[in-house]
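Why this split exists: single-chain examples teach little about how molecules sit against one another. For that reason, every record in the complexes split bundles all components of an assembly together and asks for one structure covering all of them. Below is a record exactly as it appears in the raw files.
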Amino acid sequence: MKRFLTCLVALLIGSTVFANAEAHAEDGSKKEKFNVSDMIMHHIGDAHEWHLWGEGHEGTSVYLPVILIDGGLKVFSSSHFYHGEVKGHGKHTYLVGEGPAAGYAMSHEKIYKLNGHGELHFEGDHAENIKPWDFSITKNVAALFISFLLIILIMFSVAKFYKKNGAVAPKGIAKFVEPIIVFVRDDVAKSNIPDGKHGKYVPYLLTIFFFIWISNLLGLIPVLGANLTGNIAVTFFLAICTLLVTVLSGNKNYWGHIFATPGVPKALLPIMIPIEIVGIFTKPFALMIRLFANITAGHIIILALVSIIFLNQSAAWGALSVPMALFISVLELLVAFLQAYLFAMLSALFIGAAVEEAHH
Amino acid sequence: MDIVTPAYGLVFWTGIVFVILLFLLAKFAWKPILSAVNTREAKITDALEMAEKTKAEMKALQAQNEDLIKEARAERDAMMKDAKETTTRMIEEAKNGAKVEAEKVLASARETINSEKAAAISELKTQVAIFSIEIAEKVVRGELASDEKQKVLAEKLAEDINMN
Amino acid sequence: MVGSVAAIGAGLAVLGAGLGIGKIGGSAMDAIARQPEASGKIQTAMIIAAALIEGVALFGVVVGLLGLNPQ
């Protein structure tokens, strides 16, 4: 385990070496028509590299480690895919791995095993080949680590301030963070979780709030931002957390409402119970979709507005697209906070419903 | 579609990172921060309560003071009134005393004057009597200096007696 | 083709959500104007209601995304 972690850290550091922007003067490079949909999907999706600028082999990216479990752990840099041979065309384009990545190919950022002929076999849009277990440090995982470090850095320095100065009026970063913590504690936790039971859930709500908020904000940074909270895997896990916290802290009253809703005739219970059980899952499901769709939609809108310039092949369109993209970006700053608040508040609301005592 | 299918790799990493984050923050950040904030809030509440209490106490004290002042004022007023009355009475008494004394003095003076007067009058009467006798003597002496005159007088007297 | 139909569906979902959230916002404004002292509670209730409607609309958007095929 320790060796694995060391290996991971080494790879993380090692892979931050930028790829050389080789000047491949492609003679008479066929100008492909700018595809907005592809570009946007590429930007909001996950990748095995942190692409900064440039196109293809001439671009500058940070190659992230690929971690595969396929009859043993295989760890190598994703540059072995990106610098590999390009095969296929159109939707069926794929990159054949070389060196340690030999035997694998990557298509649409998904890693497949090559078949006996050394190629991928496509059926419709997707390759039919076997996929190894992929636990790679993708762009979003790297962004996740950055969010993690940033939050730890901020919160530990705030905690240090209080440890050093005791319970005094906050200064510096504590002055900025404290009102938000108090806001989450009072307006999110205390006002939604009744009977003074909120204390136990405040750390969870604070963590989820700051994680979402800071990740949202980091995602809005142009070039360096990743669409972390706009990735359904991340929101899926956060929603699972809320689901688990809700279900595990559900009291007799909560389960009573699900399995024997008060005031409902016995004959209706066979219908009501499945509906209530589905209801347990739809609430976190809505949380997952809301965060994912809001953040992704924000990224799509900004990218689409910027695409106006490239669609029209004229910088003059920037006069229209830049102010609009700027406006949406500023709006997204608000949405970043609002979605973090909503996720935390709705989580608190669900938890509140689960721990509420019966009122007669 | 790809973007609405959670990738298990990212779910896995999110899980690990989030759980570690939750643990670290709960233990090393939220706990000290919240306890500091709570302590401070309790302190502020205490201070406010104390201020409120002190204010109430001050108010009570002030009311007490006012009562005292009122009492003192009433006392002073009563004393002033008393003093005034005493003064008036004393003046009155003094006045009355003086009057009586003056009257006494006047009365005695009057008496003295009267007695003196009486004495003087009696003296005067005596003197006058003496003077009258002397004069009468002299007159009589003159009248009776010659026989003729004695005769005339006798006649006159006799006349008077006759007339009566 | 599927993408276009899905996009129309997403558009319809957005239309409904827009109407719903607009109505919530308007009613909340009314309520706040009538009772400015309760504005905090009204805002919270408004955001929750809006979020629930938005959730439904987002399902529409997600269905739209499902139909979107990269060329």
